Amino acid sequence: MKKKLENLSLEELHTLYAIVGELCADYSKMTDNYSLTTGDNMFENLPDEVKGMINDRQLFISYRLKIKEALINKVKAEMENYE
User: Fold this and answer.
1) Under 8 Å between Cβ of 23 and 53
2) Angstrom distance (rounded) from CA 10 to CA 78
3) Between 27 and which of 12, 42, 57, 71 could a Cys-Cys bridge form, CB atoms 3.0 to 4.6 Å apart?
4) CA–CA separation, 4 vs 27, rounded Å?
């Protein structure tokens, strides 16, 4: 996956980062709403569907970190061309 991310343009990386960021925010809202609705603030009595949401959220967070690293590297490379 890392090689494929490196091959994306700066604009493509930015778009992908924004999309994944939106997905992370959506999952965050869903898990926060679960906590508020049920009062299960410590997430101790999770139904399987909520556990799945949390696992998906973690997966998208890991994607976001990988995309961010590729984005940072791309920006650095672009900036080296201007120095």
Assistant:
1) no
2) 9
3) 57
4) 25
Q: What is the pLDDT of residues 11-63, one digit of tens each?
A: 999 999 999 999 999 999 998 888 889 988 888 888 899 899 999 999 999 99
Residues 6+ apart with CB under 8 A from 57: 24, 27, 28, 31
Q: What predicted TM-score, i.e. pTM, was given to this entire model?
A: 0.83
In the chain, where does DSSP find H-type helix?
A: 2-7, 10-38, 48-80
8 — phi, psi (to 5°)?
A: -75, 150
* C-beta separation of 34 from 81 below 8 A: no
Written as six digits, the tokens of 51 are: 């556990």
